[in-house]
Amino acid sequence: MIIEPSQFVLYLAAALLLAITPGPGIFYVAARTLAGGRAEGIASSFGNGFGGLFHIGAGALGVSAIVLASAELFTVLKLAGAGYLVWIGVRTILAARKDAGLAIGNHLATPPTGARLAFRDGVLVEALNPKTAAFFLAFIPQFVDPTGNVALQFALLGIVSVGLNTAADIVVALLAGRLRDGAAARPNLIRRLREASGGAMVLLAGILVLAKRPAS
């Protein structure tokens, strides 16, 4: 048996609780949904999930541990992730102001980026977040049986966690999409929501820059 059933149930409960606890990933998806609509939010959710799988694979192979052990690599990774978030946030704010006059009647203009780009952004934002790697390396090993196939257990538990996180993100995208739809007849409100969403992404970048490398 790969994973002890009682341990898996305990892990599932803990992972579910963590998935529904508001954090940077949820706030990013909400901001992206308010900025570009439900389709972009859902695409961002799947993008975040795909980026999370990158960390799971890297963690199972030991790559994440190497990165976290190096102050220089950790700093490079977090600055790259923060810089990309700032770029997305500024782009969102500028697009909101540019598109402010494009709403016709009660219909909104076409979302500023589209689902495909939102998915790509989600992948990069999550893959460039060293805190995700740190979380998985700190959380998952507590439920791994060291006498078994550690890499396989790490990968399976990680996939479960990513799946729960993605499901929670999709729920947030749907709720944020309803909020955005309710404001469809008020283009000025949509512009302000998009600008605030861009600002939230820049704020998340600042939080990422302040991330500390886990102590050895």
Which key features would you list for this structure?
216 residues; mainly alpha; 9 helices
Give the topology, please.
Layout: H1 5-20, H2 24-36, H3 38-61, H4 63-69, H5 71-98, H6 115-127, H7 130-139, H8 150-182, H9 187-209
Helix pairs in contact: 1-8, 2-3, 2-8, 2-9, 3-6, 3-7, 3-8, 4-7, 5-6, 5-9
What does this structure look like?
With 216 residues, the chain is mainly α. The chain has one domain (24-209). It has 9 helices and no strands. α1 runs parallel beside α8 and α3 runs antiparallel to α8 (150-182). The chain is globular and about 60 Å long. It starts with a helix and ends in a 7-residue tail after the last helix. Mean pLDDT is 80; it is low at 103-111.
Give a short summary of the structure.
The protein is mainly alpha-helical and 216 residues long.
| Integer-rounded radius of gyration | 19 Å
| Number of extended strands | 0
Q: Specify the overall morphology.
A: globular
Pick out the low-confidence regions: 103-111
Return the structural class.
mainly alpha
Percentage of residues assigned to helices: over 70%
Q: For the terminal residues, how far apart are their CA atoms?
A: 32 Å
What is the N-to-C succession of helices and strands? HHHHHHHHH
